[in-house]
Design goal:
The chain is an alpha+beta fold. The protein contains ten helices and seven strands. Helix 3 packs antiparallel against helix 4, helix 3 packs across helix 6 and helix 6 packs antiparallel against helix 9.
Length: 253
């Protein structure tokens, strides 16, 4: 019997008649942006790893010029010598050995919201994610909490959180439209400016603008940072540049 061949499309999504191109993640494994399935090309085989990815992709598209036989991997991501011979075998391996895709993620929260808000898709998926995380982008009462947070901390006006909910809603709309135009824009606060440059740095702008996938990736990661600041009060790194970080630290005092 002929084994199943892999040419870059997610094999799990193909079982559902969806064609999704896998991308390289920050571990340089191939990962499905829809279900997080991971594949490692090794010794002429496409090993389906047992653990899922985290949606952290590099800004590069891998082009496949040939096909690879799908194969199993053990729990340590090494080949166990078993080729995947048919869809029944694939379905059983995915069910019994591979970690199941997380039901609740910030990416799913973001996607379900923009699909409901801007694409007239059912609200149910968003409400399910929203209730799990206790985060509702439509609830503007968060604004009062952010103002109170800034007041209690005597926050430098350049870095207040009170404007970030409005900024997040703008970024969510841009994420839906795959539109990073005017970012950064005039009138931004310093915290908005630095967060924007963190995800759309000047040195990488041409590469990111070369592919809509890269633009969407940057906007999604920016939205996730904003969610963590606004709703979790996480201390998010505002820049990867050590000189900028020192400037930010001095300004925030």
């Amino acid at each position: 019997m002929k084994s199943i061949l892999f040419s870059g499309h997610c094999p799990q999504c193909q079982l559902l008649n969806h064609s999704v191109d896998m991308r390289q993640n920050n571990h340089l494994f191939l990962e499905c942006p829809k279900c997080d399935l991971q594949i490692l090309i090794e010794n002429e085989k496409a090993l389906i790893l047992q653990h899922r990815g985290k949606g952290r992709f590099v800004y590069k598209i891998k082009i496949f010029k040939r096909e690879y036989v799908l194969a199993e991997a053990d729990a340590s991501s090494y080949p166990n010598g078993k080729e995947i011979i048919d869809t029944t075998h694939l379905e059983k391996y995915l069910k019994d050995k591979v970690q199941q895709s997380e039901e609740f993620t910030y990416t799913k929260l973001i996607d379900s919201f923009v699909n409901y808000q801007f694409d007239n898709q059912p609200e149910d998926n968003y409400r399910k994610q929203s209730e799990h995380f206790k985060i509702d982008f439509e609830d503007n009462s968060i604004q009062e909490k952010l103002i109170e947070r800034d007041k209690n901390r005597n926050q430098n006006p350049l870095y207040t959180h009170s404007r970030l909910h409005r900024f997040l809603k703008l970024i969510l709309e841009k994420y839906y439209k795959t539109d990073n135009s005017s970012l950064p824009e005039m009138g931004m606060s310093k915290i908005e400016h630095y967060l924007t440059l963190k995800h759309f740095p000047s040195y990488n702008r041409s590469l990111m603008n070369s592919n809509p996938l890269f633009v969407k990736q940057g906007l999604k990661e920016l939205a996730e940072d904003l969610i963590r600041i606004i709703y979790l009060d996480d201390k998010i790194l505002l820049s990867y540049d050590s000189v900028e970080l020192l400037e930010i630290k001095n300004e925030m005092k």
